[in-house]
Amino acid sequence: MSNLGRKILNSISDEDREKFIKMWDEHVLNTPLQIVPKEKMYSREEWDVLQDSLIGQPLIDESIEDTIVRSVREDLKRRSELGIKKYGVTLDRTDLKLKDWLQHLYEETLDSALYLKRAIKELNK
Questions:
Q1: Distance between CA 68 and CA 5 in Å, rounded?
Q2: pLDDT tens-place values along the chain, 125 residues long
Q3: So where are the chain's domains?
Q4: Three-class secondary structure of residue 24 per DSSP
Q5: Residue 88: left (phi > 0), alpha (psi -120 to 50), or beta?
Q6: What is the DSSP code string of 57-98?
Q7: What secondary structure letter does DSSP report for 35?
Q8: DSSP state of 39
């Protein structure tokens, strides 16, 4: 834990810690939070440290699986493996300048527009 994290944890009382956890639970459950007086508010950095240090649990229910996200992750992994096999490099390569990366993106975007137009034409038949 960082020195800031220790400082924050040492600076709040058990009562404030319980209030924080209750407020966080209410936030996660999408219910209104109680209004906190300005003198009790934390900076973004302090809030992040408190969140990481006090909660100690995932912010999402990991038992719920998003099959679309899983599928996209699998697609990304396959594309990476294909690129490494085909070109022998990863996107960590440093031989291209930002302008080169943007040109690649532009060309891929043009291809994407062509595929979209082709699909739309097919639907309009």
A1: 36
A2: 455 555 665 677 777 767 766 666 666 565 555 556 555 667 777 777 777 766 555 556 667 888 998 999 999 999 999 999 999 999 999 999 999 999 999 999 999 999 999 999 999 99
A3: 3-55, 95-125
A4: helix
A5: left
A6: S-SS-TTS--HHHHHHHHHHHHHHHHHHHHHS--TT--SS-H
A7: P
A8: G
